[in-house]
Design a protein that fits this description.
single chain, 148 residues, alpha/beta, Maf protein, 6 helices, 43% helix, globular
Length: 148
């Protein structure tokens, strides 16, 4: 789905969405904000780039970070749940991963969704530049929101 399609569907339903971002650093929120009328459904985004902010701003359990690391499906799920609670939204999307250009596992990304029907996380493997990986992560997160 595109951000435009999500905004239209949520507007029709009277529902809301928010974001918790690490890897994407605000790009996911920006995708929503670019859509005219998004203010009716997009409540905000929390960029929590380091582990301390994931804990303090999103409520990620330090034990989760110790056991699974910041780049994991479990952390992404807790980020999404924390954003949904803190932003008081119907849905929340989360992103975490390695965009590179250096290090192991460059292109490993986790996206997650928290909503009225529960939570889910997806592991993705992307290739390309840092900017391309981050943009692919935005699209992967948007794709989690199935509003049909």
């Amino acid at each position: 789905m595109t951000a435009r399609e999500i905004v239209a569907a949520l507007t029709a339903r009277g529902q809301t969405v928010g974001c918790a971002e690490s890897l994407t650093g605000g790009l996911l929120s920006a995708a929503f904000v670019e859509v005219p009328g998004a203010s009716r459904v997009f409540m905000g985004g929390i960029v929590a780039y380091d582990e301390g902010r994931k804990i303090s701003l999103l409520g990620v359990d330090p034990a989760t970070l110790a056991a699974y690391t910041a780049v994991s499906g479990q952390t992404a799920l807790e980020m999404a749940v924390g954003a949904r609670q803190r932003l008081n939204t119907d849905y929340a999307l989360a992103t975490t991963g390695y965009a590179g250009p250096d290090g192991e596992d460059v292109g490993l990304v986790y996206v997650a969704l928290a909503g009225p029907r529960g939570t889910c996380a997806r592991e993705c493997r992307f290739a390309g530049s840092r900017a391309e990986i981050r943009q692919q992560a935005v699209q992967a997160a948007l794709n989690l929101l199935n509003l049909e």
